[in-house]
Input
Amino acid sequence: MTTSEPPKKLVIKKIPPIERKPQIALKSVTNSEGEVFQCQDQIRVKAPWGSRATAEITVLYQDHSGNPWAQYKPNESDPKWDWEGGCIRAERLRKA
Output
C-alpha cells in the first residue's frame, strides 16, 4: 500500500527592492571637444529614421556612475514617426 504525501506549500520569497540613487541635476556639461552645453541649447542628434535632426536640451543630469547625460526633445519630426525625445551622453553632444 502506498501512502500519499500531503501537498507541499508554495513558498514565495519577496525580492528586496533595488536601491536607486537619485540622479543629480546639472547646470552645464562639457562634450569631448570641450564645448559647454546648457538646457535649451540646440543640438544635432540622430533621428529614429536615420538622418540628423535638431533637438533642444531639456534636462542635464549625472547618473549613479558619475556620467553626465542630456535629455532632449526634437524640434523636427517626420510625419511617419512618433518621436518624443531621447537622451545622449554629454561627451557625444554636438551643437546645431
